[in-house]
Amino acid sequence: GDSVTQMEGPVTLSEEAFLTINCTYTATGYPSLFWYVQYPGEGLQLLLKATKADDKGSNKGFEATYRKETTSFHLEKGSVQVSDSAVYFCALSDLGGSGGYQKVTFGTGTKLQVIP
Amino acid sequence: KAGVTQTPRYLIKTRGQQVTLSCSPISGHRSVSWYQQTPGQGLQFLFEYFSETQRNKGNFPGRFSGRQFSNSRSEMNVSTLELGDSALYLCASSVGQLSSSPGELFFGEGSRLTVL
Description:
Number of helices of chain B: 0
Number of strands of chain A: 12
Number of helices of chain A: 0
Distance between the termini of chain A: 41 Å
Shape of chain A: globular
Largest sheet of chain A: 6 strands, mixed
Largest sheet of chain B: 7 strands, mixed
Strand content of chain B: over 45%
Helix content of chain A: under 10%
Order of helices and strands of chain A: EEEEEEEEEEEE
Radius of gyration of chain A: 14 Å
Oligomer: heterodimer
Shape of chain B: globular
Largest interface: A-B, 28 and 24 residues
Strand content of chain A: over 45%
Radius of gyration of chain B: 14 Å
């Protein structure tokens, strides 16, 4: 079945440091890939997505490129801020059941703490 | 457009009781998914409903059940509560069809259940 593996946290960085959170996936079809973010006390919200190989998703200074050859979708940001402190989830969407709908599979989440 | 609304936001129950949580999806969304989030297990998929039918189910005991109404609103019920059921229960809605934003989920803020 489909699976998503992301790096264990927590990740602690100083403000303005470079961020990478690794994510690799296993899927039987041609999935879409996502990064969701969960700020303290809130639900998850979509951060960025990529629907096919070599696509780059970007939002709020975060980027991730869909690498089919390495089955990866690593999240990067050049300069993190304290406000980026949150839990980040990598996810994939693939055909489920008889193929009539999309099934979403989440990674375990990586907690990011940015200190001033 | 109103977001996903979950009620109640917080509740405290005792072992053996039952609880019902409610989720109102974004207008026009026909799919509702439920997740359990705990510090130890991360984000775990409970079930998904589309047009009043359960389309996908996670690996939870039969004490966890759900349903969806004709207006797409969904409820989940947990009977005979155990201490380990203490968690944040998240609801997510989506269009639910292959042709539209595949796999993109919109989450509510969650219902935090504490079992004493």
